[in-house]
Amino acid sequence: MIPVLFVAFAAILVVSSLLVILHRSPLTSALFLVLAFCSLAAIYLLLHAEFIGLVQVVVYAGAIMVLFLFVIMYLNLGRDVESGVTLLLRRGLGWLLAAVLVAEGVVLVSRGLAPGPATPPELGAAAAGNTQQVGLLLYSRYLFPFEVTSIVLLVAMIGVVVIARGRREAAPAGGAAPAAVRSGAAEPPGEDA
Amino acid sequence: MIPLSWLLLLSAVLFALGVVGVLVRRNALVIFMSIELMLNAANLAFVAFARHLNSLDGQVFVFFVMTVAAAEVAVGLAIIVNLFRLRETVFVDEINLLKG
User: Fold this and answer.
1) Chain B neighbors of A141, CB-CB under 8 A
2) Strand locations in chain A, DSSP E?
3) Domain map of chain A by residue range?
């Protein structure tokens, strides 16, 4: 039963990730990414990583994707225009590189990687308290990295506020700076066209 | 029981799809989503090995990766929003101010 479920969720995962990178509309891509994250969470549940599976749904499919959707709708992005010879060339090279990468992985997994000791059949009682065990590990052996994580989040939060606020305070300081920014913004698109 | 090699192959395929997305697409937001796919491929490998070795350290690492991914997405999206205000585009081809 578990291998069947795994293959089903893996198929959903691969197909929806393929649609993420192939679909022209960023909004549809983001929604397919939510589907991919949810099926990945299901695979985590099959691997008895219940805590990680639920955090995947809450953090990735919840928080991060809401941020993505917010930005896509805020910028009001339509469908991408994708054409041109250089783009075709780059597309071909990209798929070629990915094919090489996957082939490398297949070779490594099938030949280089020794099977090693077999996976233990079931965790039994340990599987029931997965969250408790992860929490114990997090607050004992990984206490210092855990605290550093909070600093990372704090720095990211302050950085986002500073970056997203823009250059609003440059205007009262002098009229020249915003004008320079605006001309810099207006000139290069003409150069591209 | 899921064999370790299946999980590693799935992880490799997911990572390769993320690489294709970064290389092929021009939309900065889609490139960001592809980076998320690659991070998730790494997470899947972590969880697979944690299950294989019957140890929870891999799951703790996945937790840290998720935190860093959240911080990275927030900062990256703020940069993209700022870039859009400045240049009116999210296509990475047209953001070439540093090009000589």
Assistant:
1) 57
2) none
3) 1-109, 129-188
Judge: B66–A60 Cβ closer than 8 Å, yes or no.
Answer: yes
Chosen from B11, B44, B47, B98 to mutate, greatest number of chain A CBs within 10 A: B47
Interface contact B70-A155, CB threshold 8 A: no
Quote the tokens at residue B30.
């889609």
SS3 category, A124: coil
Q: What is the pTM of this model?
A: 0.83
Tell me: the pLDDT tens digits for B16-63?
Answer: 999 999 988 888 999 999 999 999 999 999 999 988 888 888 899 999
Task: Report which of B6, B54, B48 is spatially closest to residue A110, judged by C-alpha positions.
Answer: B6
ipTM above 0.85, yes or no: yes
Residue of A nearest to B27 (CA): A80
Fold for domain A1-109? Four Helix Bundle (Hemerythrin (Met), subunit A) (1.20.120)
Q: Which fold has domain B4-89?
A: Helix Hairpins (1.10.287)
* B51 min Cα distance to partner chain A (Å): 7
